[in-house]
Design brief:
The complex is a heterodimer. Chain A contains 14 helices and eight strands. Chain A is an alpha+beta fold. Chain B is mainly α. Helices cover about 80% and strands about 0% of the residues of chain B. The chains are: A alpha+beta, B mainly alpha.
């Protein structure tokens, strides 16, 4: 609705429209959040852009470790695992990822208690010769190689531990608010050129048209990045995990404990286990987790992250190499599937290079919008007052004009969101306190002047 | 009982403040007896809510509390229907108070069952249950009552949060009016907070 339309509604009903009273409030929120959160978003966007290219970087840097020359035939997997274990005597094997193609190395993954949490040590073994091509520190369930792991931790928390993770959580917590708020403000203007920058516009108006039209195109992508990013966060992530658990939306897993264990039975061996898994439809990249203790089953699961998602898993009795439980990705709860797809898309893995291009567009678009946002603030600065460095923020106190019937549901919704996304709530309280301080200071100055 | 310590403290502060506000009416001079009785029920409700938030509140006897809040519900129901010469509060507001007291009695009565029931594990646990040979029929029977209770608590939670909105809206409008309306605004905000807090309690224990 344009300002004219709002005036028309106001004249007809004697009351301003809901949008007319909400817009100034939203504008001030968008301004404050934009100005103070943008630095965190810039860091997240830059490190995220770097992360997008890590699969290619890894492939180049570690090519001699993860790739081998193709040869006809492969040695038994058990022999490959023995070769890997000989490289790290005394280390406990966590899992094995057999080579998927003739040019892949088999990964023998070891526990690494001397490294940071989520890090493991992986021996890469040539499946044709059982020669160890290298041992690398790998990270997370995605087996990220050192470069990707380093960039991942940079994007997540600037290598500052839990304190550093606050930056990315703050950025993710506010990104959807800024994106959706900006979208509403832009559409609410109802200009003729909604989808593209205004031709012929100059100065601040031109910058605004770039800021708004770019935002219109990428806002849904930014909301997606914000939502999926929050699932990794410390505080909001815990709440999301608890909610998923309470609503039975968690990712299911096969049971490792056998119902009728035979402690005297001899292990059928990893090769038979893999053959059974393959025969049960587990194609592509798989991970074999050996039994942790007597009475446990082997777990074989698909670990491919590209579309179509392959995340089936089976539990296999080590004595008989027979499947005792099967879990198909198609039987996952919808929210567990969405979580899987969301995470893989956020990491740029789900749709390969197309996914990477989309993330690059979103990252550079976000950086552009932040630049134009600050530029608008600069262009709005008072020209005559040489002491003022930046433009005035949008008017404060506009909430007083919002009727209770509109403000009350907004407040209640804000309370719920603030509790569920704690850093958003805490920083919102800081913004409100700052706003109240500014109001108090202005009133004080007026009183002194009068 | 509320599991999250942050939520415990937030709700305790909220109900402590509303209890104090209602208790204040009890000692104010020249207040009608019916208003004093209204305030007494609200103060009792706030105090019982504070107790229910904490683990020690679970040790308080349930039956006397249920009796008190059923009586309070009856009082407000009578006020809604008969309105003996007092029209200072809209009929819907009295009905809301009666609903709140009924909700309170229900919460006190059902809380022990919810606290004793086994929570379903992550992922729904159906794969684990089948694999370990547990009887699914027995499991379904065992979980049926808590599931119904949980659904009831979630529904009531949403209802009470929504019912807090008219009170809050009015409080905001009054609070931004003339200074003489501020006490009325705080009174409305207190009712909004109690309804909202009760809704959150239902949601958190659901």
């Amino acid at each position: 609705m344009r300002v004219d339309d709002n005036t028309r509604v106001e004249r007809a009903t004697g009351q301003p429209s809901a949008w007319a009273v909400l817009r100034p409030l939203l504008l001030r929120l968008h301004f404050y959040a934009g100005v103070f959160i943008a630095p965190f978003l810039v860091v997240a966007a830059l490190t995220g852009l770097l992360y997008v290219f890590t699969p290619q970087l890894d492939a180049v840097v570690y090519d001699d470790v993860i790739r081998v020359a193709d040869q006809p035939g492969s040695l038994p997997l058990a022999e490959q695992v023995r070769a890997g274990m000989a490289e790290r005597p005394g280390d406990t094997v966590l899992a094995v990822r057999p080579a998927t193609t003739g040019t892949d190395a088999t990964q023998v993954i070891f526990e690494a208690p001397d490294l940071a949490p989520s890090y493991r040590r992986t021996a890469f073994v040539n499946p044709h010769t059982a020669e160890v091509t290298g041992v690398l520190e790998t990270y997370g369930s995605g087996q990220a190689l050192p470069i990707r792991a380093w960039v991942d931790n940079l994007h997540r928390g600037l290598h500052l531990g839990d304190a550093g993770r606050l930056y990315s959580e703050l950025a993710a917590s506010w990104l959807w608010v800024v994106a959706l708020g900006g979208l509403a403000l832009w559409i609410g203007r109802r200009r003729r050129t909604l989808l593209r920058p205004e031709p012929g516009a100059t100065g601040r108006r031109r910058v605004l048209s770039w800021h708004g039209s770019t935002g219109l195109w990428i806002s849904l992508g930014l909301v997606f990045l914000s939502a999926t990013g929050l699932t990794w966060s410390q505080y909001a992530g815990d709440n999301i995990g608890a909610l998923r658990s309470a609503l039975a939306w968690g990712t299911p897993a096969v049971t490792t404990q056998l119902s009728t264990p035979d402690s005297s039975a001899v292990d059928a061996g990893i090769d038979r286990v893999v053959d059974t898994a393959r025969a049960n439809g587990l194609a592509g990249e798989i991970e074999v987790v050996p039994p942790a203790s007597a009475g446990d089953a082997y777990v074989v699961k698909q670990v491919g992250r590209t579309w179509p998602t392959q995340q089936d898993s089976v539990a296999i009795d080590p004595a008989t190499a027979e499947v005792v439980e099967t879990l198909r990705f198609e039987d996952f709860p919808l929210m567990a599937k969405l979580a899987r797809w969301g995470i893989d898309a956020h990491m740029g893995l789900l749709f390969g290079w197309v996914n990477q291009v989309i993330l690059v567009v979103l990252g550079t678009g976000l950086l552009g919008m932040i630049f134009w946002g600050y530029r608008m603030w600069w262009l709005r600065r008072p020209r005559r007052d040489t002491t003022a460095w930046f433009g005035r923020p949008p008017d404060r106190g506009t909430w007083r004009r919002v009727p209770g019937r509109i403000l009350a549901p907004l407040l209640v919704a804000a309370v719920f969101i603030a509790y569920f996304v704690p850093l958003l709530g805490a920083s919102l309280v800081v913004f409100l306190a700052w706003d109240a301080f500014l109001g108090w200071r202005t009133r004080n100055r007026r009183e002194i002047a009068s | 009982m509320i599991e999250s310590s942050l939520l415990r403290w937030i709700l305790s502060a909220l109900f402590f403040a509303t209890t104090l506000w209602c208790a204040r009416v009890l000692v104010l001079p020249s207040v009608r007896l019916t208003f004093r009785v209204d305030a007494m029920w609200h103060a009792l409700m706030g105090a019982a809510m504070v107790a229910m938030i904490w683990p020690w509140g679970m040790t308080l006897p349930t039956t006397p509390q249920v009796v008190v809040f059923v009586a309070a519900c009856g009082w407000f129901f009578a006020r809604t229907v008969f309105r003996p010469g007092d029209h200072s509060m809209p009929r819907l507001a009295e009905a809301h108070h009666a609903t709140m007291m009924a909700g309170m009695a229900w919460m006190v009565a059902t809380m022990p069952s919810l606290m004793d029931s086994p929570a379903p594990g992550p992922g729904g646990g159906h794969h684990h249950a089948l694999a370990s040979g547990t009887s699914t029929t027995a499991l379904t029977d065992e979980l049926a009552a808590p599931v119904a209770l949980t659904a009831g608590h979630l529904a009531l939670g949403l209802v009470f949060v929504i019912l807090s909105l008219p009170w809050l809206a009015r409080a905001l409008d009054l609070g931004r009016g003339s200074p003489g309306l501020r006490p009325a605004a705080v009174d409305h905000a207190s009712h909004a907070a109690m309804s909202f807090g009760m809704g959150v309690m239902f949601l958190a224990t659901g």
